[in-house]
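Data deposition worksheet. Section B asks for the primary sequence of the deposited chain exactly as it was used as input, without tags or linkers unless they were present during the calculation. Section C holds the resulting structure in token form. Section D is free text for depositor observations; keep each observation to a single sentence. Incomplete worksheets are returned to the depositor.
Section A, Depositor: J.P.
Section B:
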Amino acid sequence: MGLEETLSWPFFDDGHRHFAETLTRWANSNLPSLLHEDIDAACRARVKALGEAGVLKAVVPAEHGGLHHRLDVRTLCLAREILAFRDGLCDFAFAMQGLGTGSISLFGSPALKARYLPPVRDGRAIAAFALSEPEAGSDVAALAATAKADGASHVRIDGIKTWISNGGIADHYVVFARSGEAAGAKGLSAFVVDADTPGLSVAERIEIIAPHPLATLRFDGVRVPLGNRLGAPGDGFKVAMATLDVFRSTVGAAALGFARRALHETVERAASRKLFGAPLAELQMTQAAIADSASEVDASIARCSCTAVSGSPRA
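Section C:
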């Protein structure tokens, strides 16, 4: 089942189909020429290209130049599947522009939205989401970084964040810290922190098998205006979960894009590789393996699409 067939399903409208067709043409024409050697430069180049092409309009609401009144999960999923099929780093760049501003779109004041969303939409600024810590990955309630009052109009953030995607190249971070309104998950708050704020530093760049910018960040007396808080005091857990809820389905869509590409490469290789005087694809065992893979991909399409619809704010 190809993407064209998927787009014929009734929960995709003409806007989704036009977006997918336009993005596919752009990706086929432009992604092969983007550099890969320097990972930071490669990521910046992809953000810039996505912004100039208008693709990043999908990660901001319409009031700030986006495609939809609210973030649309189906559009985000289509973008990630299409990009992942062609360029894993471009999929990463797109996803992080969304994740790093999703909290602002959902909970930011009008001033914060006006300040941070347009540059991300245009590919002029890089966004990041700083939630995880050395002792608090998926257990968000266990965060140890603190945000303490510093005068009447600021907080002081201290602590460590790690496994932060876009760490070291982002222009801003959405940071979650313990503000102390209550114990556990009810005592967290979220803030937008500019990367050049004094006291914020990159403690370590983390190398991984699939290269992309990843780092450990250190917050040492980082003063942040209270106006940069997202939501009310103590709303940090709510902000984090609401943002992740929007983007969780898109991880499956990206995985589907990678799976489609793996199947595509398998078929191409089986057709061109000769064995015993004939293409590998003529062997019955090869045909059976490819058929199994194709069936699994088709089943994943259905699961991913249903999840995107059920999780979409517009569904």
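Section D:
DSSP finds eight helices and ten strands in the chain.
The two ends are 23 Å apart (CA to CA).
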